[in-house]
Design a protein that fits this description.
This protein is mainly alpha-helical. 41% of the residues lie in helices and 6% in strands. The radius of gyration is 33 Å and the shape is elongated.
Length: 154
């Protein structure tokens, strides 16, 4: 006895397995994913940038405190704080006018820059404190607000 298989013109099962074998996503599925990701970044992005800005300000404050501590060590050795013309460079290189220099007072071979890539400003004020170390913030200019505000010692 011979058995005949019926041949159907419609094979929905075959088309579904063929699509599954091809894999991939449709354009609409990709667009939906992109929209969802952009909404998430729109909500999370500003908060992350705010943390980054705040972290730079805190980092500048910590570096200023570290430079201030190094200047205090210089004071203990030399009996004075550096002059305006000597600046912060005395923390790394012996000034010609100091015989009692026991530096370098910083581990780095060069003076550190603030988190925005600008040099710290050293001022001899003599009013409230013997010196002042300033970072002018993201814009590198005196004054400013928010991320561009000045960060000072003491």
């Amino acid at each position: 006895m011979i058995a005949f298989k019926s041949r159907s013109r419609h094979r929905p099962r075959d088309t579904a397995t063929k699509r599954d074998r091809d894999g991939g996503f449709t354009l609409v599925e990709l667009l939906v994913v992109l929209v969802i990701l952009s909404l998430i970044m729109g909500l999370v992005g500003p908060r992350v940038l705010g943390y980054l800005s705040d972290a730079r300000s805190r980092s500048a404050k910590l570096q200023i405190d570290s430079l201030g501590a190094a200047l205090d060590l210089f004071y203990l050795d030399a009996g004075r704080y550096p002059t305006q013309s000597e600046g912060l460079s005395v923390l790394i290189k012996r000034p010609p006018s100091s015989d009692s220099w026991n530096g370098p007072y910083l581990k780095q071979s060069e003076l550190p820059l603030d988190p925005w890539g600008n040099a710290y400003v050293y001022k001899v004020s003599g009013q409230e404190a013997p010196f002042q170390i300033i970072s002018y913030g993201s814009d590198g200019r005196e004054g400013g607000s928010d991320d561009a505000s000045d960060i000072t010692s003491r």
